[in-house]
User: Which sequence fits this backbone?
């Protein structure tokens, strides 16, 4: 009978279970914090101050025109300066390379005993009174007397230009001379429309060492 009574017992007849402990380890529940009295409720987040956008400068049409005029004037001045500099640079290159090359060609032809080629480097101031044969005869006589031209070099700072005439002084060394002698060569640009090359217009009385030369050794 007792066993049946144990089966017929309902949940109300069972002894109550002990209460579960709270999460904080105590038997008391944590209290919800209260808002202090007088504190305002924030319905929306506070506004963040914005940095003002820089205002674009409005250019008055009159100022814009004046700025453009100033810019055009600066560019025009720069172009004029560049043109002047380019002109003088080009003139300097022409005066230094053109006649300098002609002088080198003339002396190179003499050192190679190519008198025909050397004669083509002469200008009308010489060719009008001296034929190619006469020039070759004079050059051959100097080669027999003092020896052919072995070397030549321009004397430093000897180049001058005056009235469109370029002048150089060269030190000439011949095989039969113990010391070099100087030769002053003057050139002028040809005025012929089809020929603007520089030509030798003067080399003194002779291509040799001059009056103070030693006696000719034949």
Assistant:
């Amino acid at each position: 009978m007792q066993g049946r009574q144990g089966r017929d017992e309902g949940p109300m007849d069972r002894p109550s279970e002990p209460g579960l402990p709270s999460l904080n380890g105590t038997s008391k529940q944590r209290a919800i914090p209260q808002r202090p009295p007088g504190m305002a409720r924030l319905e929306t987040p506070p506004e963040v101050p914005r940095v003002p956008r820089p205002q674009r400068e409005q250019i008055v049409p009159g100022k814009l025109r004046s700025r453009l005029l100033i810019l055009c004037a600066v560019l025009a001045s720069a172009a004029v300066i560049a043109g002047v500099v380019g002109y003088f640079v080009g003139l300097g290159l022409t005066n230094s390379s053109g006649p300098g090359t002609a002088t080198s060609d003339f002396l190179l032809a003499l050192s190679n005993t190519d008198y025909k080629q050397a004669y083509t480097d002469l200008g009308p101031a010489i060719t009008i009174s001296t034929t190619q044969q006469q020039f070759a005869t004079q050059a051959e006589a100097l080669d027999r007397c003092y020896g052919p031209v072995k070397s030549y070099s321009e004397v430093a700072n000897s180049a001058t230009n005056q009235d469109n005439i370029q002048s150089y002084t060269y030190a000439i060394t011949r095989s039969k001379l113990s010391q070099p002698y100087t030769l002053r060569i003057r050139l002028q640009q040809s005025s012929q429309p089809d020929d603007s090359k520089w030509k030798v217009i003067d080399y003194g009385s002779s291509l040799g060492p001059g009056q103070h030369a030693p006696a000719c050794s034949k």
